[in-house]
Amino acid sequence: MTGFDLGSIGGFDIGRFQKEVMRAMSERGPNMIDPPKVGENVPLRASTTSETVEGKGFDGFLGEAIDTVDSLQKDTQQKVRGMMLGEGVELHDVMIAANKSDMAFSLLLEVRNKLVDAWDKLSRSVM
To answer: Given this model, what pLDDT does residue 118 score?
Structure first.
């Protein structure tokens, strides 16, 4: 898989791991990933759309995250409803959808908490 032989979790040896990383870096060279060229549009995340960082501000990304969480919650509600009505929805599909929705909501909540914390610190420093 990765080329690193870490052995069992209980017998993890950080020195051996560092040696393996150094060996892999020496084989592949210092620039394992080529940096973007100057002036090149770099997408913020891998997607099928052609949108780049320049085309969307933070409010756009935040709005997209809220829409994604909302759609995941609606999907979970539909699957729960389908399972309860006997429409052929499997329990594992409901659980997967519920976990995806929960993780997305938790991440969005943490982002909100960090924004509120940053705003509080900023407002205290101004006074």
So the answer is: 92
Give the distance between the most distant pair of CA atoms in the chain: 60
Residue ranges of alpha helices (H) inside the chain are: 14-28, 58-84, 91-126
**Residue 104 contacts residue 70 (beta carbons within 8 Å):** no
pLDDT of 60 reads 86
Determine how many CB atoms are found less than 10 A away from the CB of residue 69.
Answer: 19
Query: Alpha-carbon distance 86 to 93, whole Å?
Result: 14
Question: Does the predicted model carry a pTM greater than 0.85?
Answer: no
The dihedral formed by the CA atoms of 99, 105, 106 and 109, expressed in degrees to the nearest 10: 180
Q: Are 5 and 20 in contact (CB under 8 A)?
A: yes
The SS3 call for residue 29 is: coil
7-62 confidence digits (pLDDT tens): 444 555 556 666 666 666 666 555 555 555 565 555 555 454 445 555 678 888 88
* CA pair distance 50, 55, nearest whole angstrom: 10
